[in-house]
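Exam review. A common question shows you a sequence with its structure tokens and asks you to describe the fold in words. Practice with the pair below. Do the first one on your own.
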Amino acid sequence: MILPIYTYGNAVLRKHAEPIAANYPALNDLIANMYETMYKAEGVGLAAPQVGLPIRLLVIDLAVFKEDNPELGAFKVVMINPTILERSVEEVSGEEGCLSIPGIHENVMRAEKIKIQYFDADFMEHIEEFESYKARVVQHEYDHLEGNLFTDKVTPIRRQLLKSRLTNIVKGKTSCDYKVKKA
């Protein structure tokens, strides 16, 4: 089932998401719906707050990159209750966009490498290290669980330049090819 994606201005995007237990109601259905929603919107990651749920759950699938980068194309993950344990001191800049902030792309500094602890869909614990683009996508989605958006990480000058475009998203003056829940 396609879920509406909550756009910039919705309060749920600014909440610190709560951990969930293995008996969370209809968890497998929610995960399937999040993937379906993400694919329909042509995204590579989606966090539960983006579909209106302030819980610590995110899904990622980088299959769209398999032709150019088989390693990325094989990266599909569900992370429940993730915690970033370590971030490298080295940061790299990269362009990011977000399904909750349609039409805006900006360069953002992120740690080049991270170490993260999480549970998968079967509530098996994992501790893994990611780098480069995998680390970037995981950090982007993880930020949603912390109530942060990529636009919070741009320079103050860029944020000022984005102000009117963000206001238009809040007012519903942005069109998307996917179902959204406006503020």
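Now try the second one, then compare your answer with the model answer below.
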Amino acid sequence: MRTLYLIGGPMGVGKTAVCRALQKRLEGSVFLDGDWCWDSHPFRVTEETKAMVLENICFLLNQFLRCSAYQHVIFCWVLQRQEIWDAVLSRLDMDDCRVRAVSLVCAPEVLSARVRGDIRAGRRDEAALERSLSYLPLYAALDTERLDVSRLTPKEAAARLEVGV
């Protein structure tokens, strides 16, 4: 049976780092970051681009789920609203597949420090901090497991995801 790991969380919480660490732990795994499916300049959020990115994500995830080379499919994206989770899941062929739906969260001061570090390093713009902090409380309302990564390294978080703690 395949496992589909759907990992959400606000910008800067460490989704990509945790998923990379998880990928290294799991033989026969593949990783997709939802941001890669609409990495454009300038970045535009419109109804058309939102529909396109969802279609891109679901196409790629279905390809991975159908490929016998992969037993573990790992996907991360901000996923701050239940309707986004539902839209992704409703389009996936999940025969013989279990789903781990997890939201990574952390203390607001930890998230602020992480995002500020990304801003200093040129990986995020100033507006990312306010957006990220505004998304943080939304994860409490989702039908997902929550993993607080405030005091965890990406490797430690990946180990907990793998064993389901």
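Model answer, second protein: Strands lie at 2-8, 29-33, 72-76, 97-105, 145-148. The two ends are 20 Å apart (CA to CA). Full marks require stating both points clearly.
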